[in-house]
Every structure is written in structure tokens, then in C-alpha cells.
Write a structure and sequence with these properties.
The structure is a single chain. By secondary structure, the chain is mainly β. It contains one helix and 35 strands. It has two domains: 309 residues, Glycosyl hydrolase domain, family 43 (Tachylectin-2, Chain A), CATH 2.115.10; 128 residues, Galactose-binding domain-like (Jelly Rolls). Helices cover 1% and strands 47% of the residues. It is globular.
């Protein structure tokens, strides 16, 4: 019997909705694992939820995620926004944003999976991110539409006198925060939220959510957009941050058009995450959106390149080199394969919910699922004439499959073409969906091997739902 693919991108089960994920590698009981701490989208009609949970995976297998359960609930039962966790000595500290980010408490545990107890109040603010430096000094970063940073005392809660810095970078002129400082607005490279500090190659790297206030045509952005995770860097932990670039954008696969502009293939939304090095490879953890609002987000992961130029500048993302020297970087592509860099096993049953390309925008979407069933699928719904659903990338191996089997339904007859390599690529299979039928099997008319992108193109007068597929 065929197995279902259980970890791709999103990397957690499709029923789990953990955005704002801060990844951390901790060693506990002699084992190194990557732990993810984030918000928990369980309210369904509003951001986040009333508990925070922990998942982890061994550093040598980022598809084998384990659920550790609830690690923290707010002192007053309020909604919890994005947290962070750091280790100092033998203790792990959770910075919990209670009351929808309005109050930050720090709780502790001897286990990175928690539970985190003995919460104490801090003077930190929205979206706290914390850095334990090589010399043991601790720095905190936070803010919404304005950012702040400071050094903490040894109690991990108190701001050290004289260290608070306001506006280490410019911010957005945004109506969400009417009290934002008007003198530090930056329309081109604007801090929005999601502070996440790291120390990389001796430099202090400040990852944050940028809100583009001007168009970015090459990425298909023509309106104010905060679907980016960006960074600045400095030789100092609290000031002197210099321009970096963009690491990730959750607008799906970006189609390059003949005029040099780009076209998004996934509905962007707010973004939050962090960088982590795992077995010598750096990754960016971020989130994407399902449904038709921002209340059912899912954690995503992509490998990134990191390099330092001769002038000391840090480059992060998809880096361009000239004669071995980094000269520029751009966001890494959004994929369905994530940490599975060789591609997803094409011969397992793969949920359509792993699609990173659903085009045209705002027509079809991934339906959120919450039923905690092993191997549950998240279907793509709202499919109409001209919809394309794509996954990047699948691994077919060295022998071409003979057939493709698709689970999909429609209220009126629709035809489907299966393409490879691009949404306009070579057709390798075709079949018809008739009302009342849910399983469809079609022979492949062309061979396909190796690591490839696969697209399903729908046409007809009906509306379809696409659940899953497999190659045989």
C-alpha cells in the first residue's frame, strides 16, 4: 500500500498552523535537535491562540518532526503572539508575548521543550527576539512599526541601564501605530515587525519583516507589502546596522515575464521567522498563508546561502558571485520541497496542499485543515477554468513512471493537463474530471526522470477541488 508524504513544505503536518517560527538548535540529553517556537493559529477567526506548543526534529533529518505538547499558556489566559527562546547556561528562557503582544513575560525551563514556568514581567515589547552573545551578554530586540533594542541584565528580564536604543533602523509610516516616531520613517527599507537577531561570521544580523512601500516589479509587488523577511547587519549589537537585503518572500513561485517583471503565484501575507545553521547548512524559517485570511498560517523552510564580502558585508539568500566574490543577493525561491533539497518522493501520495504555485491569484487557495489525523491532506479548492496548481520540486529517480493518479472532483466536466518544469511546460499526461468521480488515472505520454517541477492545469466551466496525487 502506498505511503502518504508526511513532511514537505510546510514542514509540519498540514493540520498544524504555527507561524512566526523561531528555529533554535539545542543539545539536550546528548542529542542535538532543531526546536521551533512560534505562535499557534488556533482561534481561526483571529491571529494566534491561547497556548504555545513545541515541535522538534533531529538535526540530521528535517522531515522527522516530533510534537512535544503545550509549553506555555499566558498568566491571564490571554492570546499569545510571537515568542522566542534562548539558552544561557543550562537554562532555556521563553519570551512569551501575552495579551496579543502587549505584555512580554520571560519564563524558564531546564528542558528546551518546556514546560516554561515561573514567568516574570519584562519591559520588552512586540515580537521579542533575543541574542545570547559569545561572551554571555544578552541583547533583546522588539517593535511594531518602530523598533528598539537593549542589553539585558543577568536576570534575563531587566533592561540594563543606559543601553536602550530606539529606532536602530527606519520604519513604516503606518496608521496601525499612530505613536510611531515621525523622524525615522524609511519608505524604501522599512521595519515593520518580527525582530529576530543572530550572530553570523562575527556580525550582528537583524532579521525583520520589511514592509515595502514602493513597488518591486521584479517580484510582482505593486502595493504596500510585508510578505518579506529581510535583514540588516552591524559590527555592533545595538547600533550601526547597515543595509542587507531580502531573504524570503511568501508570494509563491515568481514567474519571470518577458518585460523583466515578475508574477506572484501565491497570496502573500505577513511574514515572520528566523535563520538557523543545521549541520553546516543555513535555513530560513518563515510562514505562508492558507485559506482566504491571515489566520491559518503554516511554517515553511528553505535553504539559504550566506557569505561575507571582502568589505565585511553579509550576504544572505540567493547570492550572485563574480570571480568567487559575493556581489548581490535576492530572496530564495519558495518551494514545496523545503529541506528535501533533492525533491519530494514522486511515488508517495502527495497532498495538493504542498503547492507553491496557485495561479491566477485569489482564485483558488489551500483550504485549512485542523483534524489531527496522521497524513491528512489539505486540498486546493476554488479551482476554475485556467487555474494552475504547481509543486517545486519532485524527485522521479532514474526510471520514468508510467501513470499518474489524481484525487480531484468537480461540479461540471473539466479537463486536466499535467506539465513539467514550468506552468507552460511539456504536457506529460491528460485526463477528464466528470461530476461524481473522484479518482482519475492517466498514462504518461512522455518520460520524466530526476528532480522536476510538476503543474496541474485545469480547464472547463466547472469548479474543482484537488486533494492529492501520486505517480506509479
Amino acid at each position: 500500500m502506498k505511503q502518504r508524504l508526511r513532511s514537505a513544505n510546510p514542514y509540519l503536518p498540514l493540520w498544524e498552523h504555527i507561524p512566526d517560527g523561531e528555529p533554535r538548535v539545542f543539545e539536550y540529553n546528548g542529542e542535538k535537535r532543531v526546536y521551533v517556537y512560534g505562535s499557534h493559529d488556533t482561534l481561526k477567526t483571529a491571529y494566534c491562540g491561547r497556548d504555545q506548543v513545541v515541535w522538534s526534529a533531529p538535526v540530521d533529518d528535517l522531515t522527522d518532526w516530533k510534537y512535544h505538547g503545550v509549553c506555555y499558556t499566558a498568566t491571564d489566559g490571554s492570546v499569545l503572539y510571537a515568542p522566542d527562546v534562548v539558552q544561557k547556561g543550562d537554562t532555556f528562557y521563553l519570551y512569551a508575548a501575552e495579551c496579543c503582544g502587549g505584555r512580554v513575560m520571560v519564563a524558564s525551563s531546564k528542558n528546551p521543550a518546556g514546560p516554561f514556568t515561573d514567568p516574570k514581567p519584562t519591559k520588552l515589547g512586540f515580537d521579542p527576539g533575543v541574542l545570547v552573545d559569545d561572551d554571555g551578554r544578552v541583547y533583546a530586540y522588539w517593535g511594531f512599526c518602530s523598533c528598539y533594542c537593549a542589553e539585558l541584565e543577568d536576570d534575563m528580564a531587566t533592561i540594563k541601564e543606559g543601553t536602550l536604543r530606539a529606532h536602530p533602523m527606519g520604519h513604516v509610516p503606518d496608521g496601525w501605530n499612530p505613536n510611531a516616531d515621525k523622524e525615522h520613517i524609511d519608505l524604501r527599507d522599512a521595519f515593520f515587525e518580527a525582530s529576530s537577531p543572530r550572530k553570523i561570521n562575527g556580525k550582528y544580523v537583524y532579521v525583520y519583516s520589511k514592509r515595502y512601500m514602493t513597488p518591486v516589479p521584479e517580484l510582482g509587488v505593486y502595493e504596500p507589502c510585508n510578505g518579506f523577511l529581510s535583514y540588516k547587519w552591524s559590527d555592533s549589537p545595538l547600533d550601526g546596522f547597515k543595509e542587507g537585503g531580502d531573504i524570503s518572500f511568501n508570494g509563491g513561485e515568481i514567474i519571470k515575464l518577458p518585460d523583466g517583471t515578475g508574477q506572484q503565484t501565491y497570496r502573500w501575507g505577513n511574514n515572520h521567522g528566523g535563520l538557523v545553521e543545521i549541520n553546516g547548512q543555513w535555513y530560513i524559517f518563515y510562514h505562508r498563508h492558507t485559506g482566504t485570511d491571515e489566520f491559518a498560517r503554516q511554517g515553511m523552510i528553505e535553504p539559504v546561502d550566506i557569505a561575507m564580502g571582502q568589505d565585511g558585508k553579509i550576504y544572505i539568500g540567493d547570492i550572485t558571485y563574480v570571480n568567487g566574490e559575493p556581489v548581490s543577493s535576492k530572496p530564495v525561491e519558495e518551494t514545496s520541497s523545503g529541506a528535501s533539497v533533492n525533491g519530494l518522493d514522486a511515488y508517495k501520495i502527495i497532498s495538493a496542499g504542498y503547492a507553491c504555485h496557485i495561479s491566477p491569484l485569489r482564485q483558488a487557495y489551500v483550504k485549512p485543515v485542523y483534524e489531527q489525523v496522521d497524513g491528512v491532506s489539505a486540498p486546493v479548492v476554488g479551482i476554475k477554468d485556467g487555474t494552475t496548481v504547481g509543486l517545486r520540486y519532485l524527485q522521479f529517480g532514474t526510471s520514468a513512471p508510467k501513470t499518474v493518479t489524481v484525487s480531484a472532483s468537480a461540479d461540471k466536466p473539466m479537463s486536466v493537463k499535467v506539465r513539467v518544469d514550468s506552468f507552460r511546460g511539456r504536457v506529460i499526461a491528460e485526463f477528464e474530471i466528470k461530476p461524481g468521480e473522484t479518482e482519475h488515472r492517466a498514462p504518461l505520454t512522455a518520460g520524466v526522470i530526476g528532480k522536476r517541477a510538476v503543474y496541474f492545469e485545469f480547464s472547463g466551466g466547472g469548479e474543482a477541488e484537488f486533494d492529492c496525487f501520486t505517480f506509479d
